[in-house]
Batch of 4 targets.
Target 1
Amino acid sequence: MTREAVVGIDVGGTRIKTALVSPDGAVLAEAVHLTPPAVGDRLGAVAAEAVDRLVRQAGDPVELLAVGLVVPGLVDDEKGIGVWSANLGWTDLDLHGSVAASVDVPVAVGHDVRAGLLAEHRLGAAREADNVLFVPLGTGLASAMLSRGRLVTGSQWTGEIGHVVVVPDGPPCGCGERGCLEAVASAGAIGRRWSAATGLTGDAEEVARRTEAGEPEACRVWQEAVDALAAVVAPVVAATGTELVLVGGGLARAGDTLFEPLRAALRARLGRRAEVAVEAAALGDRAGCLGAATIALDLVGR
Amino acid sequence: MTREAVVGIDVGGTRIKTALVSPDGAVLAEAVHLTPPAVGDRLGAVAAEAVDRLVRQAGDPVELLAVGLVVPGLVDDEKGIGVWSANLGWTDLDLHGSVAASVDVPVAVGHDVRAGLLAEHRLGAAREADNVLFVPLGTGLASAMLSRGRLVTGSQWTGEIGHVVVVPDGPPCGCGERGCLEAVASAGAIGRRWSAATGLTGDAEEVARRTEAGEPEACRVWQEAVDALAAVVAPVVAATGTELVLVGGGLARAGDTLFEPLRAALRARLGRRAEVAVEAAALGDRAGCLGAATIALDLVGR
């Protein structure tokens, strides 16, 4: 029996995640591999190989309906342009054209976090909510928002909350500024700041464990991250009427070690008035490639 | 010649502003009067009297198409309910029903700031922009947002940025908390804080003049207001891709005394990356009643 499906491709700074997904949301095949150098020059080949590999892996015959590609950084979803990515090293790259030249089905292009939120809305932890702020806390930190079930997109900087300065003259950020949210509250920053303070090596997961154990330096770094996050999230919740803050990325695995103080910090900044739920995203690091599949399905009306 | 028109009514804590507006946006008549006590119990009479007075005032015969009513506080625009207003003293008031019982045309109900932004978008300073954050700085402080030309509305708390805590343990706010944005950056707060610091009496306009003259206490109070405003506005701009911050209310009359430091504070928090324009609203304190007329025109498809 031939099954209809789309391929979703999430090109990250370190890994490329791909999935073959049927219109009902079932994942028929998945693969992850390392991002090759100069990936921007070979997106066509990456897409064609992903399609071949996943279709072979699925076993049953597949009718490919579309391909979805998502990337980080600044993305013009409508024109299919990768406007800028620090990690992937491109500027004004024609993502749509590159992929469309190598596959003979329609191609959808999107932003990894925005598409990830669509997947959480369709398949994950935001199925019941229409006014959602999605904040994946990983190496980097960006956001996406649903208002009445629709993605909010304004300028090309939409979602770049990681580079809002929350601690003037704070720790240096990869972007060249100091005290950006990403430099205080991303998983990467938490590990780095704790290591710098203690002289020990360890990642955010280590800091979470030591926070649970009550170690003072870990608790301080952790609480500063939580406060910085609340300082940025609270105004957004108030201005847009967010009902659910969905936390994703590696840091979400810390569970209530993160969510309890974050809920408390948001209550302190919003009062009892603006009740907002804080929950873990459901799709983990698959949100991006399932999101890529979601925009591919949307493109062909499935 | 009979002209088609709608009546817009903006019920504020101090004044009721009303206007008779034609579908092309021309204001045919206007009136302002004091808000009577217990206005929530007599909205039907207020609306009927406004219609009578404005139609008489217009001179030419008028075909009334609809009435629009806007109020502050928490408003359920769709159900036409005044959920809560501290100033006007109501809870779950059936605004739509009260007015509809007294006029024999369709009635639209909305929030004063959200409707004011629609009027700025249709007739005022936001005509060219589709991604706009509107912040009227008056006695109180709330916001409204357009994303791709559509109002963003989520929970009933949407736009309540005035009660985001920006200065923990800061000055007391009318809401019972401390350090809310409204307690630092509203026109009312600026006057109060400067008076408390100097022992002199004066309003925000006075503080603006003394800031221009370089008086240290005035400059300090003014800059604290600007910084608090930027701390709330910057995350919203970043998360939603705002392209234009439109400042209204009495404080906007300070012009570049307000806008220049506000632009600088936003640049400091957003970096060069997220260019956002900061401009004065055009409709002043008529934004609310012109907004009420706008939602009335929208309701009847004009």
Note: Chain B touches chain A at residues 130-131, 133, 143, 145, 147-148, 152-161, 163-165, 168, 175, 177, 231-236, 238-243, 268-271, 273-276 (CB under 8 Å).
Target 2
Amino acid sequence: MSRTMRLAVIPGDGIGQEVVAQGLKVLNAVLPSDVKLETREYDLGARRWHATGETLPDAELESLKDHDAILLGAVGDPSVPSGVLERGLLLKLRFAFDHYVNLRPSKLFPHTDTPLAGRPEIDFIVVREGTEGPYVGNGGSLRTGTPHEVATEVSLNTALGVERVVRDAYERAQARPRKKLTLVHKNNVLVYAGHLWKNVFDRVGREYPEVTTDYLHVDAATIFFVTQPERFDVIVTDNLFGDILTDLAAAVTGGIGLAASGNINPTGAFPSMFEPVHGSAPDIAGTGKADPTAAVLSVALLLRHLGHEAEADRVEEAVADDLAARGTGPRTTDEIGDALAARVSG
Amino acid sequence: MSRTMRLAVIPGDGIGQEVVAQGLKVLNAVLPSDVKLETREYDLGARRWHATGETLPDAELESLKDHDAILLGAVGDPSVPSGVLERGLLLKLRFAFDHYVNLRPSKLFPHTDTPLAGRPEIDFIVVREGTEGPYVGNGGSLRTGTPHEVATEVSLNTALGVERVVRDAYERAQARPRKKLTLVHKNNVLVYAGHLWKNVFDRVGREYPEVTTDYLHVDAATIFFVTQPERFDVIVTDNLFGDILTDLAAAVTGGIGLAASGNINPTGAFPSMFEPVHGSAPDIAGTGKADPTAAVLSVALLLRHLGHEAEADRVEEAVADDLAARGTGPRTTDEIGDALAARVSG
Ligand SMILES: CC(C)[C@H](C(=O)O)[C@@H](O)C(=O)O
Ligand SMILES: CC(C)[C@H](C(=O)O)[C@@H](O)C(=O)O
């Protein structure tokens, strides 16, 4: 009996295209022979916007639904006004497909070049809320462009939205050896949203007596990310704090070239989307300098999400082995992709 | 002719009291003999709140106005519900006295123990907006405590508020050798507030043609704080991003034990307030382990703000020399204060 994996691919802009190609290469190499991979490519991003003015037409949003998962490279270019593609494409997808779990693992692979190399093991995941908070796009501007302008941004937080992501984080913590969950917020200043988060966190926690919990303000959390990242196991946090903390996490572990992410709808009502945390890096696009490892690790998250645990493990092991074997000479995007594909099929 | 410096002192809680004592010791030692120091101590913080339920009574707020500056240690204790002292005392002071420039310098002193020791020179200042943004306390909660709760936080930003702090940052950048100013925001997601900041930043920048500018999203900024902090000279940013970035800045330079801050009203309409960035650290209060250096460096900022440039320089040099001379054995709070006082008067 053969199975089919229906994958929507959004290569996007700049290095997005280059790294997605390597992700697909590794995916093809690792998939069991009885799984048939069907991909459909979507031309979305800066190029499309320049050509047609469209970011994500309804028909394409509809057709994206008809897939098991989405693999995205990176979108964005300095030639597009800030916010157009972010709000009109990336965030539109996260919101439309209710990607409420934005999953971002951080692991210090051996032999990685980082200010913290040689430190005790760093291995934590950030469960970032993906559909609420300051990201809802609920803002406005009055007397725009005048000396009397007032601009607002509203952070919206609901018990429903907070509880489902907090519960997901407890489940993940429960399943890990250390069983530790840290809530990060700023409840001494953002008291309304902060207290909602803290109350839900405490209440749901009573259902997970084996999970050890603690709370950190976001500012204090950044200090521990630098001085003591090994203290973290699972972190759950709001959309904006998660955005900031996961870039920082990437910086203190392997660098943004290794940071993968999943925009997950755990209910399965809509396809989940997997993407490297890095951007389209137009400055190095076309030079072959982009490290496709984050895209490949995003493929591992995708495999795990779709139940291909063994294949996900193999991809992650291939990355670990490849990093350990890296010499000093630079390799091209393609060479790294080839090496990883060889390892997973070897 | 003798001059008087009228100083309001809020020692606060935990190590706040211990470090403020050292700050005053150094201040006394460095002040020229023709300056008379008059201090008035205010009993505010967790102890006061437990005793009377008060955070900052109007009469005390009034009487605080009647000073040249305020020196604050740290307030807060786990026994006080989160937000009570922050909103009722600390932020109340910043807002009532219109402390719109929250100034936080970061310098990697030689011989400091940090993950980045041995890196190229790090010497930047963060000019954090202090009276707007997500800190305005404009939020609410509906159906609180039920599964249908909705909680909001509104970030308020005005052209007036953004322009005055941006202008202050340009002035500071203009006065420094590198003349570089970086705006940090998240204008690809928080488009209304972000565009206000960016437009004002660009417009005011035309008056400072010698200042080189750039823009970073807050998530990307955290990466550069770790991988390339030497690229920064002056950073201007919003209240919440500034809170997060300055703790991170402390972590990558000398640690939170060295991070000083000034809550400044540049118009002089109200007294400015100087405080270490660190908290009251109840876990080490009373042990003599607190490093008073951040409080002493806050005194240097205070001196500079009041026009005592030479004395401010002497305090900063004393700290640099003391750090360079530090052996491996720990010293008590008091011993460090004594050493610094000896250096400034020596
Ligand atoms: C591009 C931007 C909208 C996005 C975000 O802020 O979530 C990115 O920074 C990320 O972390 O995926
Ligand atoms: C205690 C808290 C209200 C405060 C802030 O968030 O501004 C502190 O973190 C700081 O940075 O001074």
Note: Residues 97 and 269 of chain A are 8 Å apart (CA to CA).
Target 3
Amino acid sequence: MPRVLALETHDVRFPTSLTLACSDAMNPAPDYAAAYAVLRTDGPDELAGHGFAFTIGRFNDVQVAAIAALAPAIVGADVDELVADLGGFSRRLVGDSQLRWLGPETGIAHMAVGAIVNACWDLKARRAGLPLWRLLCDLTPAELVALVDFRYLEDAITPAEALDLLERGAEGKAARILELTAGGYPAYSTAPGWLGYTDDHLAGLLRQVIGEGFGQVKLKVGGSVQDDVRRLALAREICGPDYLIAIDANQVWGTGEAIRWIRQLAEFNPAWMEEPTFPDDILAMAQIRRAVAPVPIAAGEHVANRVVFKQLLQAGALDVMQIDATRVAGVNENVANLLLAAKAGIRVCPHAGGVGLCEAVQHLSFFDYACVSGTMDDRVIEWIDHLHEHFVSPAVVRDGRYIAPTAAGNSMEMRADSIREYSYPDGPAWAGNAVRTLGNQP
Amino acid sequence: MPRVLALETHDVRFPTSLTLACSDAMNPAPDYAAAYAVLRTDGPDELAGHGFAFTIGRFNDVQVAAIAALAPAIVGADVDELVADLGGFSRRLVGDSQLRWLGPETGIAHMAVGAIVNACWDLKARRAGLPLWRLLCDLTPAELVALVDFRYLEDAITPAEALDLLERGAEGKAARILELTAGGYPAYSTAPGWLGYTDDHLAGLLRQVIGEGFGQVKLKVGGSVQDDVRRLALAREICGPDYLIAIDANQVWGTGEAIRWIRQLAEFNPAWMEEPTFPDDILAMAQIRRAVAPVPIAAGEHVANRVVFKQLLQAGALDVMQIDATRVAGVNENVANLLLAAKAGIRVCPHAGGVGLCEAVQHLSFFDYACVSGTMDDRVIEWIDHLHEHFVSPAVVRDGRYIAPTAAGNSMEMRADSIREYSYPDGPAWAGNAVRTLGNQP
């Protein structure tokens, strides 16, 4: 009867702000970071569970403290009981009344719950000897429904409707699993489009990713209209008129400014317009979408919970749901998000990149195709070829497609030597670099 | 040229869960707590600034860590420069791109900014020798506009509209300040209505607060309809048909359940229905308000920022804005909230109670009457006679009205002996009590 012996945490940061990779209109100089958690058990060595919250530098230590503060909820738990009811476990954590005061269900406290819940799923998948997506595929529709917290969702989807969706989604599942295993899932590349890049660098990278087989790219916008127009014209020239080019403003605009700005970029026929404004501003997003139609609106990397996604769908504010593996309360809440999208009939194109987000979120899209939506039409997972070397089972993209993960677990395990090297502020990688504080920004 | 020498923090918790005071349908056993911050300067002794975030127990340590992590943004600052531009200072903190990732503008990170911004206002008011509300009254309309972060607000209120509102609000200001000084501001009492109280206890407390001169009380609801109906019938019998009785469900319902439940309580003519559902569910709140009209809908203690308040007003979801002194990014964001309410023509009835929330928020209502709304009609500040003895300048309510604060500062300074006594987990007050963790709840 194995037990959870310890919750180990690490503050791991990569000095990505030293280059201008990852620069956008809102985030000029992020240091990609993981508030990293390991559940140690007294089973055999491999029975550990790994999870993390992704941040962009400062306050990663606070995120780590929040994860560590959840130790009393998990240390000492009977592993068999724990993994047998991850729906109940995650509802108890999310619903803890004192913890909830710090949200509810948003920000640092909620992301801490997500890291722990994801680590539990890693543990469960390793015990089953399956990659997370295959483990999820083996659950029955009723077992999947039991994972979801329907509190505040029932005006959009009921447990009975979810069960019905999943029963229909299970038809043909075996064939789709084979198809995923053989052919993977489409990816798109954000690599060429960072705001800090010169036009020449942008052009070179665009040619490169097209050559690598990607069917879509994404460019950051929102610094200046003139720059955006010039860069998009260049991209259209290189990619051709029908190639998919999404654009992303990372929340820098107010409503009126967004509408004026997007109208000036609409001639370049964007595949979608991502994060035009504040992520919780549901009414603004809906107004922007109506005003710039038919430009599709995408958002999600900063959507804190299923209730905000629910409203974005109810308000007609969203064409593309961009789930994120570590923003919400882990796998369970993302199953809720996938069900909301399926019910509304909108596509899910996950946010990834960062540190380990490709690794983590791919499992959810593979599961979605096999068991929920049953379609890959117009669906792509974000891909940035960056920092994968720090993971034990890195995500792999070939010919513009994610290859189905096969290693047991959720792919979030970071290499022990990377954790040592990039531990903040004492790891060797930080020895030659100025420590990043609010008063000391590059 | 005084400088900020240090940011001192304390984890202060009161074992309120040992009684059933403070129990409601969502929060059965809170331990009221303050993540407390002091800005020490090298001016004379009294030149310190005090602020805190209010939490209800667990994770107060994480909230303290978040406040402490902001030290590099404030320690070393020139105090004259700092207090001369608190608008710029708060916009820089709120807008820090790496910090913003953990929100944006919500949860632990945002409340940490609020504690620091409030401490800066305390420092500024002490230097001026004025209570915070009087200091705010001395600012010109243009200076007040400069405090506000209009990002994401301009579809509801522009700087020019705010200036116009404040210029009109300033007319007759001197007379209203005299009126406040002489007669104070109306309070309402939540003391009788906690869910854990017996009917006899409820009845006794209702008679007591009516005798003390309060014109309104609030009862917690949402445990069971039968109990709510019985308690409200009892309250109506004691208070009479015209006495103001507000009710508060603390977010426990989904949309449909809220509508069904409120309709069963509507016969008791509630003064308002507070927090019927999830605080970020703007569309649900609007739907509930339409369905249960004319019952007024109130919310705000869990509204994370001005953008959510903006939407609640735009969606027609709110009759009563319940600002909270420590939920948002401090005084500056609450000035924005007061302006939004004034523009929309709805009343502001602040959330208080907790630890020191009465002390902190009273200044904002006094300022609102003097300089913004110019009215006290149907407006009341929450009052719970609890834990005030721990503050150096406690809020005072007499004959059902808050007495105008006269001590210099924002009234958030806690007594040094209280901080020592209730420091968690090592203060003497916790020596005889079980330490509260997720695994060890009373």
Note: Residues 184 and 323 of chain A are 19 Å apart (CA to CA).
Target 4
Amino acid sequence: MSDPEQELGITESKEHATGDWYAEVVQKAELADYAPMGGFIVTRPRGYEVWERLQSYLDGWFKDTGVRNAYFPMFIPENYLEREKEVVEGFDPEVAWVTHGGYDELEERLAVRPTSESIIAPYMSQWVRSHRDLPLRLNQWCSVVRWEATETKPFFRTKEFLWQEGHTAHHDHEEARQETLLRLDQYERLYEEVLAMPVLRGRKPPHDKFPGAHTTTTVEALMPDGKSVQGATSHNLGTSFAEAFDIEYVDEDEDTHLAHTCSWGVSWRALGALIMTHSDDQGLVLPPTVAPTQVVVVPIWGAENKESVVGYATELAEDLEAAGVRVKLDDRENRNPGFKFNEWELKGIPLRIEVGPNEVEDGEVTLVHRPDGESLPVDRAGAVKAVEEHLDTVYGKLYARAEETLEGEIREAESREEILGTIGQHGGYVKCGWCGDPACEEPIKEPVAADIVMVPLDRDAEPIHDECAICGADAGETAYFAKSY
Amino acid sequence: MSDPEQELGITESKEHATGDWYAEVVQKAELADYAPMGGFIVTRPRGYEVWERLQSYLDGWFKDTGVRNAYFPMFIPENYLEREKEVVEGFDPEVAWVTHGGYDELEERLAVRPTSESIIAPYMSQWVRSHRDLPLRLNQWCSVVRWEATETKPFFRTKEFLWQEGHTAHHDHEEARQETLLRLDQYERLYEEVLAMPVLRGRKPPHDKFPGAHTTTTVEALMPDGKSVQGATSHNLGTSFAEAFDIEYVDEDEDTHLAHTCSWGVSWRALGALIMTHSDDQGLVLPPTVAPTQVVVVPIWGAENKESVVGYATELAEDLEAAGVRVKLDDRENRNPGFKFNEWELKGIPLRIEVGPNEVEDGEVTLVHRPDGESLPVDRAGAVKAVEEHLDTVYGKLYARAEETLEGEIREAESREEILGTIGQHGGYVKCGWCGDPACEEPIKEPVAADIVMVPLDRDAEPIHDECAICGADAGETAYFAKSY
């Protein structure tokens, strides 16, 4: 007999064909589809709801810490971007250009925003007058477009992507430094407390900062193929944008000062990293924090006990819903239990509850954890409380597994050969002493396409080795090399 | 002594210069600023937060009624729009065209979405197979661009605007009809229960439907200058999009049918209508439902009683906050109470609480309603409950005032001359018998720029007069003429 669920299931292997497997999970779990134009995707309700839950956490934290949402135009006049290019070395984004409106050619081309510093900064300049206007903290949730020619990988690499971009102005360097770290803390918290992913915190080496930034900080996450993903960035822009766009304030003594500005953002790439980290060859795995449905109740009945089994399952689902659990009852007639199990595993529901005649008779229900299939009976009487606890257990399992992987993938090296060999053989992170010269990145970058993805944040920390692993000069800091997305 | 608040206040008159007054309120209440490109605005936090609250109500109602959010690309290939133009008579939007990506010219131009039927319908076609896949209800919150050359009026007329667009597919005409009315009900509820504005429900005359629609329904709101605003629309698209984009399903008997589709949307024009309806010559007036801050507590102290007055005010603000009221304590040292009153009136805080030494002594607080300045003392002990009640009272006052205005602005007419005279003299709505021929709109449209903004929904209702007011033929229905935005 043909088994219909086989066609629905994942056919690629996470271990052996990570890219193909990822693309298959995204499509078959109905998170996203490819758009007709290369580089674009359609985010389906199952994918968008995960983004909404991520947004809801982060937006709440932002608002609790003085941030207010706003909305700036999606277009930026060419001369605004030019102004930014003149003052910010290295800023030359590839953008989508609007040249015609209706049937007419525009007098000036408009860029679809690749990021909004250049259109937000002039308004900050108008809105900031006195020291009382600072700090000014703005954020917008929007989509941006970067016309980079790359193979489309849903959520990871798309020409249009959803993100939030925070833009803040401050009195002085210290306040801007604290803001940068506060947002980095919130991103770290997002990964660790919401997405069940440990991350490494650090700053980008000076040659890899955001153009114009004083400091770029990052949280980096390890993917199963051994590459690092930049999970979110928080930039201390110093006074470069304030100088370019005249963001000045008058202090209590009537003296005029340049403001210090920051920007910080996380994109839907976080969804890509989430999907890739936890999912497996059965399909999507999501932590209960962001899963659209947290629990599926599957009644398993025969002709002789249908009423009692379905009734028992329905009442359980109602109790869970009343307790605030996002629960679905799958009592479809036209699908057998095996099909249902496979479907909800594919679609990433964290906890399955099986209810059959034995469970009804014994006053129990059977819980099954999505990540590892662990199955165990619990009393019906305490089922709601047990479900809440087991959702936490599932979260903990996902986090622990990702943490164990990460810890095993950070290695040390003391020479160029050792770095190359270790990255070539294992991937992951290699940490080593570094003199701080960007030239020392090249002998690693060229042969294995790995570079310095971050340097630990604390500048006063002792480097792990006294000497730069590449040139042998005095090492001022520790560099983390990795291949990256 | 010069009075600094005079410069901050509104200088234009709502009655005598409605347009200028509106623009001044929007800017001085810090809701929005003009962007550097004509037709675009920057939505500031005070404005965006009102939009977020509107979103939160509506999004909740949508989700409670089976709608799921998604996100489709902001660009639509030219051939997709062409396909829509071929099948949908009258569809020829003026759009912004992206012609270059990075340094290269694109092979095919991309339109920045003016609305998304043409990119969503092809996916509906893929996602709908069986009758079990219906109804399919999608929504997205996004921005759209329409390159119409008009004078910019923040929120009312902008080339880019924020909105939500719902797109649904159904089994048959009846289900699509019910969906259309369900969304119209939700829009009516938004206006009446959230924005404190009564609206008229109806359908657009056939010659003014959305291109390709079977029926376009609308809620219309009256503005203080006597013009009507289309507050939201809900379209039953019949099978025209399903035919053009092959949205078909197989029923239980294995027969194939065309789906019926709907689309429905409300834009930030609702904010414009809200601001224009309730605000006055002192500035912004907002209902407590959407006001970012609902209550401001202003302590009024002298040197000898500062500690007790500010302490009393602070404790009150804390109690209100604990009860879930959005409250602000204005204990600034460098502003006098008169300045503070004017500032918060300008910025539209619905309820002010004044606390001076007399209030402290008497164990009272003084509440002042923003809409009409009504001032009354309440016991401190019951202040939290009183504030909650008075917020409802303020809402009621706003609604009642708008309702009274609307009722006085609906007039009847029995001839062309009477319609022209009434609209010319009073503005507002004129209802009359109508034969249903679009030609009968012209003799009104030309001289006074008024047209049929809606026809009451119930097709079986008796027309108010037996004869068409313009041509004298049998009147099949009642038309509402008005000038409109």
Note: Residues 383-408 of chain B form the longest helix (26 residues).
